[in-house]
Amino acid sequence: EALQAANKLPILVHAADLPLQNFKPDAPLEPLLALLTRQAERQVAPTLPTILEAAFTQKRALLLFDGLDELDRAPLEEAVQYLAALLQAFPGTQVVAAVSPEYYDGLTALGFTHVTPAAWDRVQRKTFHERWADMWTTHVTPTLWNSTPENALNPFILTRWLQLDTASFTP
To answer: Which residues neighbour 146 within 8 Å (Cβ) at sequence distance 6 or greater?
Structure first.
């Protein structure tokens, strides 16, 4: 199973960035290629069609579809139609999607399973806040304009505020 996962090509896309206006169901890779080509470096862009086609055809594509949870109902339905066409053209493609429980419609019909991450316990949250404060002090504070030890933003204040009543929150 680990070897199978190592052979996957992860493809990260944000739903709002995917150009679905003129989407053709018989060419589901076109919007993905348009987006990735626009984001790729000039040397890589010409090879993308071959790489993407091979990954999807050989069932090695792992589509990480972010932002579905940020869409209104109409754009979400359009994105679900896109996923349906993509999965029909390339069965066996694995997709991980960030979705909202309110707009989960259509994805179950495509075989998606809802997974809810477990909330962090008190110790995990405390550890996260402490590490965040250390990183802030080490990497952010020195880059702030006019940052001297006496006027630097103390991460302790925000850390303590976050620790007050965040039992149900997870970053």
So the answer is: none
pTM for this model (two decimals):
0.69
Within 10 A of 110 (CB to CB), how many other CB atoms are there? 14
**63: which strand partners?**
11, 95
**Encoded amino acid at 69, one letter:** D
CA separation (Å) from 75 to 31, 70, 81, 89? 14, 10, 10, 21
What is the distance between the terminal CA atoms of the chain, rounded to a whole angstrom? 28
In eight-state DSSP terms, residue 68 is G
CB 36 within 8 A of CB 48: yes
pLDDT digits 0-9 by tens, 90-101: 998 999 998 887
The Cα–Cα gap between 25 and 6 comes to 30
Q: CA separation (Å) from 88 to 11, 34, 61, 83, 92? A: 18, 20, 14, 8, 9
Q: What are the structure tokens assigned to 157, written together?
A: 């204040």
